[in-house]
């Protein structure tokens, strides 16, 4: 089993995926433990001073004006966790919760949050034990971070609330901690706030979506090439020199992938045969332009994710050393407060989820358009007036058999939903906390709908694969490309049936979806083409 070591300088997307999906073990580096201890010294020094410090000795949000005495501060931290664990709706997926907790741990280990090393270690212990706190679908506005989702995780660290054990059984969190020898955390100054003030949920879902879309965008290059082939289209539009004069890198990569899949095909170039056509339809001819634009959107989203992975998101944050600008010095009344040695605790707005929310919504737009163009290719393959000699709906005995008519209905329904999901969540904002938090990102909502979009895109691509594979096999007397033959053969072995009389399609479509989603489609192709871009 892989071990991920968390230090003060951040983690990688690969680390997040290893923990969230692969169950990797987590260790805290010596540097992280030192950074945690150093920042805690600053918080302890400030807690001992008479002046109020936000998050240390005050209330929160619109209640930040109240100075909290030492005797109530532990209760204050417990109360913020309990009161903010107010989510509702279905439980979110285990991998989302694990990513959420791991990314919060990443920020704690930066040394900018002021929690004790034992708090960070407790998160690592819970993840290593396979304990997954219950987090609900609704409760985050994406500003002050993913407050309710993170609060439910913090509640479990305190031994309260519910969690799933390694076997998936829902139990009391305190019982699960005891069973695995983990002591519930007794929170001190600032620690409750530090556990729930970050963009970790939306960032974790962005990272997982990017990983899934990497597979799906390469897969759609394969299915688009197979559709072009089945429609007897021309591969001349994929020539590198044509894409070099419009130098978008994603477009060039997509065209190169399609060209690699079509190498050696006996079906391409027949557009001048029985029913001559000068050009293929846009859904075929412009496939690299549309998929390529999505690839470039993914590249931008990945850049944002990498920046966020290197960030320390909390409010307030602990800044060591030189006071710098913006503080007030000891005894001051502004947003900054200084401890011994010049370290300070400073309020900030880095918890706002806008950078992540925007790219989550941008990806949903790209996904909807990719699904749309794939559906148009499928429809063309099923229409006898536009498929250049294929039987209606690829039916065995049209009229008696309906063929893939309703498979396209399902695909169309998915695409219609993709278009609805493309409406940006981040264009909305709703005030909260008595107008103190008067502008929010809705990044959690953007991430949740993107997960649905990615799932639906896999199904849309699966229907195109199913249709194109059948259409290629119906082109008797013409030999498809070696890569196409490899895909068709592997799909058949995976339970994706070929041409023939009508039968129950749902199981075969599910097999096609799994074939796309788990990467077997790409494995089959790349045995012939080598790695796709």
UniProtKB/TrEMBL annotation:
Contains an active site 4-methylidene-imidazol-5-one (MIO), which is formed autocatalytically by cyclization and dehydration of residues Cys-Ser-Gly. Transmembrane segments: none annotated. Pfam families: Lyase_aromatic. It is an enzyme of class 4 (lyase). Pathway: Amino-acid degradation; L-histidine degradation into L-glutamate; N-formimidoyl-L-glutamate from L-histidine: step 1/3. CDD domains: PAL-HAL. There is a cross-link at residues 143-145 (5-imidazolinone (Ala-Gly)). InterPro entries: Aromatic_Lyase, Fumarase/histidase_N, HutH, L-Aspartase-like, Phe/His_NH3-lyase_AS. It is found in: Cytoplasm. Keywords: Cytoplasm, Histidine metabolism, Lyase. It comes from the Bacteria. It catalyses: L-histidine = trans-urocanate + NH4(+). The keyword Cytoplasm applies. The modification 2,3-didehydroalanine (Ser) is found at residue 144. One of its GO terms (molecular function) is histidine ammonia-lyase activity. The keyword Lyase applies. Its EC number is 4.3.1.3. Belongs to the PAL/histidase family. This is Histidine ammonia-lyase.
